[in-house]
Design goal:
Elements: H1 10-29, H2 36-45, H3 53-60, H4 64-76, E1 80-84, E2 92-96, H5 98-122, H6 124-147
Antiparallel strand pairs: 1-2
């Protein structure tokens, strides 16, 4: 492990790993003309219950203005739509359309293959452990933030 310079920064190393993983995922999704951010939106909406823009922004890690533009592009392609929230019909929610669900189904295999390639390169057990550790780190930091 590098003890000095950028290589000693957890934030930098996480950013490097994220960029590498995202670059590969972007290449996989390019065949369907969908960005990683758009795929995240579709994946977050896949269960079909719909999400408010606030919920969706939090789920897909995007600021509201960026999310609004991305959702508008997905609406233009008929991959998602806005409609009344199932919990509160006065609120607007975003839902995946049949066409969006079909696109997800087409990309699922390629996304799974991308994940498998990462696991092959890094080790399957190490990849699963890394994913658990990152979830634990996120939860710990979120908890520490709440206590501050």
């Amino acid at each position: 492990m590098n003890d000095s310079g950028l290589g000693s920064s957890l934030a930098y190393l996480l950013s490097c790993a994220e960029r590498s993983v995202t670059r590969g995922l972007a290449a996989v999704l390019a065949g369907e003309d969908v960005t990683v951010e758009q795929w995240r939106i579709l994946r977050a909406l896949a269960e079909g219950r719909g999400h408010s823009m606030g919920e969706l922004a939090e789920a897909v890690l995007m600021p509201h203005p960026t999310l609004t533009k991305a959702v508008d592009r997905l609406i233009d392609r008929a991959l998602v739509y806005r409609g009344p929230s199932k919990g509160d019909r006065r609120r607007v929610a975003v839902f995946v359309s049949d066409r969006g669900a079909e696109l997800l189904a087409r990309t699922d295999g390629a996304v799974a293959e991308h994940h498998r390639l990462i696991a092959d390169a890094f080790g399957h057990e190490r990849t699963e452990r890394l994913m658990r550790d990152l979830e634990t780190l996120t939860a710990a930091l979120d908890y520490a933030e709440l206590r501050a």
